[in-house]
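This part of the workshop introduces the protein records we will be handling. An example says more than a description, so a record of this kind follows.
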Amino acid sequence: SFAERGLAFIEISALAAMVKAMNRQRLAAILLLASVLGGCATTPDEHLASAKAHLAAHDYSAARTELVAGLHDQPSDKAMLQLFAHTLLRLNDGEGAGIAIDRYAAAGGSAAEVNQMRAEVQLIKGDPQAAWGMIETDQSSEGLRLGAQALTALGQTRESITRFEQGLTQVPSVPLITAYARLRLSANDAEGAGRLSAMLSQLAPNSYEAMMIAADLAAIEARIGPALAGFARAAKAFPSRPEPLLAAADVLERTGQTK
């Protein structure tokens, strides 16, 4: 941990100050102790484990910090590069993600996954046509999600819905259902969003996505109390995400409760 590394540094510094007053035999003992203390430094595997924990909590900035530290020691580690690329995508850092994806590919990363991540980079950069060209034939859950989002951005809503529905039938996943629910919510389709919210609640009941979709659904149905309670629950469970508090503030403003 940071505290352990700080303690090790203080102890080693204190030992170094005493070296001149000690004989060679004691110096040998000191060097051995310093070596042991040096072993307290966080390993790349520990950085990776911490990053995974931060990602589960949706703390993408903290995950990025851990992965940068881990990759400093193991710059070609495939697992860390994979997670690093996904983390930067979650942070909407298209440029950074593009570099990380190239490094992941060079480390032997999955060609299909690399293509999907590169398509998502194009979506982040505002080029859905390029994203669609890369992902059109991908029938995996992630491929169907990204393709549907590209079609939505291109104004082809009917085709987007077809692709989302295909995903629901074949390979439903939390990211796919969430993206589809967002499309239905944006169209004020409470019935369609409600169906997807129920699916999310069954698939991942305590997930950030399930909480937020349920709260957003309550908001468009003018169920203000449940909406605010849902946003508060999401904010408490995932304190690193600002969206729940912003959404709650938006509901309060729209309903005139901020005065």
